Amino acid sequence: xxxxxxxxxxxxxxxxxxxxxxxxxxxxxxxxxxxxxxxxxxxxxxxxxxxxxxxxxxxxxxxxxxxxxxxxxxxxxxxxxxxxxxxxxxxxxxxxxxxxxxxxxxxxxxxxxxxxxxxxxxxxxxxxxxxxxxxxxxxxxxxxxxxxxxxxxxxxxxxxxxxxxxxxxxxxxxxxxxxxxxxxxxxxxxxxxxxxxxxxxxxxxxxxxxxxxxxxxxxxxxxxxxxxxxxxxxxxxxxxxxxxxxxxxxxxxxxxxxxxxxxxxxxxxxxxxxxxxxxxxxxxxxxxxxxxxxxxxxxxxxxxxxxxxxxxxxxxxxxxxxxxxxxxxxxxxxxxxxxxxxxxxxxxxxxxxxxxxxxxxxxxxxxxxxxxxxxxxxxxxxxxxxxxxxxxxxxxxxxxxxxxxxxxxxxxxxxxxxxxxxxxxxxxxxxxxxxxxxxxxxxxxxxxxxxxxxxxxxxxxxxxxxxxxx
Length: 470
What we know:
By secondary structure, the protein is mostly helical. It is 57% helix and 6% strand.
């Protein structure tokens, strides 16, 4: 097999040894080229062989040079070089999706990054704490004010930047002690996000000082990944409030009345494609314990997941789901990467972590943790089926009672909607208005192949005509 080394870079053997644990974890191949130009591929799980003393006796590795993916080594060097953390340009060279195409937005957010980078960890914590104190004072006002919106925007931008700095500082933490210490430290930021979510929940239940006020608020206007996550944070809370109101107003009885003719066909398609369950004739066969409202803690958790859902994603990508596409699965894999990062470095909250790991599954047309678990189970039990398709309890996904963690289906739809509304350099010029976006979502994600949840989508359509934030 011919190997093109253009995308590789030479790495000293000592450096390979230094990065060994990370290379093993990420399953990165190594290329060797000996004195005669003979090239070999060394799988990551064989890396220890390179450090054995008798390797010099093997003619295949005599006077060999070693190579690794150039982009991977650049990322590793960046993530382990604290001096580079004070260089905003290098930060943006790694997290390219944090750089907004709008110069005005980019300048403001770069200024915040420049403010954060020289701070020590205690100064960063105190900076966020002081902003949260300002935000909590806004809870006592009669309305959700423009001032409160600006405070939320600043906090969320800074938390987004800080979390990515944490990705840098934690990516090479290998020992158990370091991971545990990292988790203990990073839990502060998870608690900060929850605190902001709690205040935002209170504010979004008030009258708004001005409709669409976040549309012109820094932190929510841009095409970059931070603004995208910030909008999902707000929209998740606002939509879940709206969803609960619909449940209170009796929408469940309407769903039951129309189940067989309108709703059931979508869930039948899902179950037939994935062989999840046999009987879809009743709503209670689909939903474990039926459909209900989301409680306050679930809303806060999903808002936190929304802010963190793309935490390990470094580039702007087109992630519209395409069935049976290996390239698409590579794109979706950031959901698993983010899940693993959150689980081992930041969060003890299973609901938050699982939501992040599932946010691109699209009922089996995407990629994520639940489908990975399902395939693993079927490798052992080919005829395996779930008791239910959907559950409100994340534990049911991990114990194979249900395949779908229902709250994350909200994040899935909101993520897709925001991608279509705030698209940049994507050839979808004929999709601009909410009506056009909804038509596109239905035609491509529900009409023939069911990739998003129909019940949530039905409520989401009404939410768009009611929403006030953007």
